[in-house]
Design goal:
Blueprint lengths: L8 H11 L5 E4 H7 L1 H20 L8 E6 L8 H10 L2 E10 L5 E11 L11 H12 L6 E11 L20
Parallel strand pairs: 1-5
Antiparallel strand pairs: 2-3, 3-4, 4-5
Helix pairs in contact: 1-4, 2-3
Length: about 180
């Protein structure tokens, strides 16, 4: 049985859900990437691959932007990873080149805007009973879904000057 880390991001978002407030919850992407190196490397590898493909297609660096999917299995088994998995679930991280970094890399602006909701119809999840409970609380108006929004930055190599890191694969397991 997976246990939610005490006093973490997941517990905070669950409390907000149960509070009945639909106000968005802020996520500090810089802090979340710093506390989970596996997540940081996963996001960076996916963005680097995406940017290398854009560069090969002739897209100017100043116009590079996009999004990468972060499945729940990409967070890893660390305490921080489990906390982020339970809080954020599968989500898209959007990026846009915002300038040059001192080390010659590119500075990216990151964004996440994700709907905190429950998926009881996906019965193959290890957390299926929690999804059923969450959805029933919403249906009974005892809890409210909301959005999580956050920003951050990331430095990646210039894809026109170096080869992209091979994209990391998420761990093979259910993404529920």
């Amino acid at each position: 049985m997976q246990i939610m880390p005490e006093n973490g991001l997941a517990q905070s978002t669950l409390r907000h859900f149960l509070s009945g407030s639909s106000a968005p919850v802020r996520v500090d992407l810089d802090a979340e990437l710093a506390r989970n190196p596996q997540l940081r490397q996963y996001v960076a590898s996916r963005i680097e691959t995406d940017m290398a493909e854009s560069a090969a297609a002739g897209v100017p660096l100043t116009e590079m932007s996009g999004s990468v999917w972060v499945p729940q299995s990409a967070y890893g088994d660390s305490t921080a990873g489990k906390d982020q998995q339970f809080a954020l679930g599968g989500t898209f991280v959007e990026y846009q080149v915002s300038g040059c970094a001192a080390d010659g890399g590119l500075e990216l602006r990151l964004n996440v805007a994700d709907h905190y909701f429950w998926s009881p119809s996906e019965s193959n999840r290890p957390t299926h009973c929690l999804h059923e409970l969450g959805a029933s609380l919403v249906a009974a108006r005892k809890a409210v879904e909301f959005y999580q929004v956050g920003e951050g930055t990331l430095i990646v190599p210039d894809p026109t000057q170096s080869e992209a890191m091979a994209p990391l694969e998420a761990q093979a397991k259910d993404d529920g």
